[in-house]
Amino acid sequence: MKQIILLSAVLVSLFTSCTPQPAAPSGPTFDEVVTTRRSIRNYDATKTISEAEVRQLLTTTQEAPSWANGQPTKYYVAMTPEKVQAVQELIGDFNKRNVQGAPVLMVSTFENTKSGFFNGQATNEIGEGWGAYDNGVSNAYLVLAARAMGFDTLIMGMRNSDALRTLFNIPESETIMAVISLGYRAAEPNRPGRRPLEEIVTFY
Ligand SMILES: Cc1cc2nc3c(=O)[nH]c(=O)nc-3n(C[C@H](O)[C@H](O)[C@H](O)COP(=O)(O)O)c2cc1C
C-alpha cells in the first residue's frame, strides 16, 4: 500500500512539474525559415498584425533556452499608431526611415542579476553578460519564429535606451537591449555575405 501511495505521488509530481511538449508546427521548413529571414528595412504599410498574432509569436519565442530556465527576457510591444510613432522617434534617423510601415515595434530587455547569478552573486566572469546572452537567444527565436509565420523583422541596437525606459516605464532592474520591428517586407532584400567558415571555426 505504502509503495502504491509513493508511486502515485511520484507520478502526480511528474505530471504537474512538466508542461506538455507543444505540437510540432506545420509550415515552412527550418532551412526555408533561416534562408529567407533577412533584416528588413522596407515594410509594406498596407498590412497589419493582430495582437493575437504577436501573442502566438511570443509564445513560440518562450521556447528559447535560458540560464537555469530563468527566462530573463521581456518584451514591451508597441502596437497603437501613437506608441509605434513614439518608438520610431527613439531609434535614430536611419532606423526610423527603415521601419516606416512596420505595424509593431518591440523593446527587448532582460531582468538583471538573474542569468549567471546565484544568491545575488555572479557565478563566473561573464556576469550580466549571461543576461545579454539569453536575451540574444530569445531574440533569435523571435526573428526565426516571425519568419515562420510569414512576418519580417529588423533587430536594432541603435536606440535611445533612456528615453525608451521612460516611454515604457521600464524599471532600472532591467537592461534595455534591442528594438525589433515586426511587419511584412515590401521588397526582396539582398543577402549580406558571410565570412568563410574557415575564419570562424577551428576543428581539433
Ligand atoms: C545586435 C544587433 C543590432 C543590430 N542593429 C541594427 C540597427 O540598429 N540598424 C540596422 O539597420 N540593422 C541592425 N542590425 C541588423 C544587422 O545589420 C544584420 O543582421 C546584418 O547586416 C546581417 O544581415 P541579415 O540580418 O539580413 O542576415 C543589428 C543586428 C543585430 C544582431
Compact overview of the structure:
The chain is an alpha+beta fold.
Structural notes for this entry:
This protein is an alpha+beta fold and 204 residues long. The chain has a single domain, classed as NADH Oxidase, CATH 3.40.109.10. It contains eight helices and six strands. The protein has helices spanning 2-17, 30-36, 51-61, 81-88, 92-98, 129-148, 161-168, 197-200, and strands at 73-78, 104-111, 117-118, 121-122, 152-156, 174-183. The strands form two sheets. A four-stranded antiparallel β-sheet has the order 1-2-6-5, sandwiched between helices. A two-stranded antiparallel ribbon has the order 3-4. Strand 3 (117-118) and strand 4 (121-122) form a beta hairpin. Helix 3 packs across helix 6. It is globular. Bound molecules: flavin mononucleotide. Residues 38-39, 41, 95, 98, 154-158, 178, 192 line the site of flavin mononucleotide.
